[in-house]
Structures are given as C-alpha cells and as structure tokens.
Amino acid sequence: MAAGLNAIIPGAGQYYNDRILARILWLLIALGLRTSRIRYLLHERISKSGGLVSKGVADDFVEALRQLEDDRNVESLVEIHTEDCEVGNVAVSETFRGHEGLREFWTEYRKTFDEMKSTYRNVFATEEGAALEWTTEGTSNGDTVSYEGVSILEIEGGMVRRFMAYLDTRDLTPQIVD
Fold it and tell me: d(Cα 131, Cα 119) in Å, to the nearest integer?
C-alpha cells in the first residue's frame, strides 16, 4: 500500500499506516483522481486485508458507540452514517431512517441503561460491510445487565448505510423490564 501510494505522493509510506493510507486513497478518488492505478491500488489493498475500509468504519463505529455509552453523545454515530441510513435491532419492530431516526433510536437505547460498556470479541470485515460480535454489560434501574449479540454494518461510500443488531431478546427483556 505504501509503495503504491508513493507513486502518487512521494514519501507517503514513511509517515502513515495502512488505515490512513486507505483513507487518503479514498479522498483522492472522491476528489476526482480516478486513475486506473489508484482504483487498482485501493482494490488490491481491500482484497488483501479482508476489507480495510469496512474494518476502519467498524473501528469508527466501536469508538462512536463508546462515546454514546460513556457520554451519551449520539452525534459521533451520526457522523459515520449516511444521511439515508437505516438503523434497528430485533427488539424493536420499527426501522429508524435518516439521521433523525438514528438519533431517536440510539438516544432511546441509551436511556435504557444507567451505566454500560460493550466489549467486542470479533470484528469481521469485507468490502461491503462488517460484523461485530459483542457483549454489553451495565446496569438498568440499579440491576446488573449483561447480554450478547451481533451487529451487522452495511458500508456504502466509507460510511454505515445500514445497522442491524441481533440478540436474544428473551435474555435481555427480563433484565431491563420490571
């Protein structure tokens, strides 16, 4: 990756890691530098890394969710989702659409818990998306809560287009409903 980008920006590989280099390539493409060489380098890196861009988006999602958990800040999640995003989980029958829907979904979700922290056992990425296997622990109404699940991120243009979480509601519901 660094050697390939050196052909476009001399010396780039000495100062940046692969994640930053991939973002630079995406920026170059977005700015109109759509040479076949740039497309080839980007495709080659994504193919070899198992979805470098999607892995980067997944990492950004994990960080944004941490901010929601720690500070109740939903705006970090808004920043990494497309404007026409779809957000939901199997516990809620409604699919929330757009940034306003995303804000509603995540704000209501966060209100369910007093304190919370998610840990990630596995993150798998492809060119089209990512899967995150997680455990969330915390408190709700003063009681301890712990549940596991998998979230699927569908990636479009380096942003989350669709988020869906799958979990066993039979495990979670008794822990959060009095």
Answer: 14
